[in-house]
Amino acid sequence: MKLSVPGRATATAVTAAATLLVGGSIAGAAPAPHPAVAAAPDIPVANVKAHLTQLQSIATANGGNRAHGRAGYKASLDYVKAKLDAAGFTTTIQQFTSSGRTGYNLIADWPGGDTNQVVMSGSHLDSVTAGPGINDNGSGSAAVLETALAVSRAGYQPTKHLRFAWWGAEELGLVGSRYYVNNLSSTNRAKISGYLNFDMIGSPNPGYFVYDDDPAIEKTFKDYYAGLGVATEIETEGDGRSDHAPFKNAGVPVGGLFSGADYVKTAAQAAKWGGTSGQAFDRCYHSSCDTTSNINDTALNWNSDAIAYAVWALSS
């Protein structure tokens, strides 16, 4: 996320929530007129963490960061692209210039689905220069990557077209995502039925925040967490500070998840979610200590599953 201005519930519960959302079936109701939509798969948190380990290794080998215009960013992009190419995605690298350095966005399209209705999920792949950026935003990048790979493993054939994106130079002011949106024709912009953004989803002292932008997308995430019995709050800390903003400004419906940055967790939030009140959601935000040790596994696990849940539900 760019700089600011002055234990799992059962799969049964999640599957039940998914069935209610996409099929609308309840006990005693008449059978749905259409075949049941396949439930989203569980996203193995170990796989997401393995991607984070790779991003950490890339940063360590490249001056301790994965920042725009640095070797660590390009190596991160190459890692993600190789995984997607092997899984059958059509990948495109979009190049731009910012602060005198070359930047890159990575776009991955899953073959099939109605290309006039695109469900897009994205995260920024760059870190700040101060550290490796494993929560900010390796966490979102790794979870979106693993969700895309789950699409491939499942051989998922959604009604709508699926697109995934990893943005460059977010930390310099949403540069990559803004470049992408600004270079879409009005026709192609209108084809995006929703953009889902994931920027910091594994904070070590986590909160469970849902963007309150598009009502249908917001409800999808809230329904997922209701299935876990976890209360959520409306996301306000990152409003306008991440890559959903250019899409929202262009009239695209947006939504997303967030686990908190440098705001302080209140006593009420600690009572609701656990963790430590009076302490930032992420004490290592934009710092050298934002390493693989700076991740809460439960938050990463739940949020990764929530991404898949939303992708399946909104594209069916």
TrEMBL record:
Record's signal peptide: 1-29
Domain Peptidase M28 positions: 105-310
Domain of life the protein comes from: Bacteria
InterPro entries associated with the record: M28_fam, M28_SGAP-like, Peptidase_M28
Keywords: Hydrolase, Metal-binding, Protease, Signal, Zinc
PANTHER family in the record: METALLOPEPTIDASE M28 FAMILY MEMBER, PEPTIDASE M28 DOMAIN-CONTAINING PROTEIN
Family from the record: Belongs to the peptidase M28 family. M28A subfamily.
The protein, known as: M28 family metallopeptidase
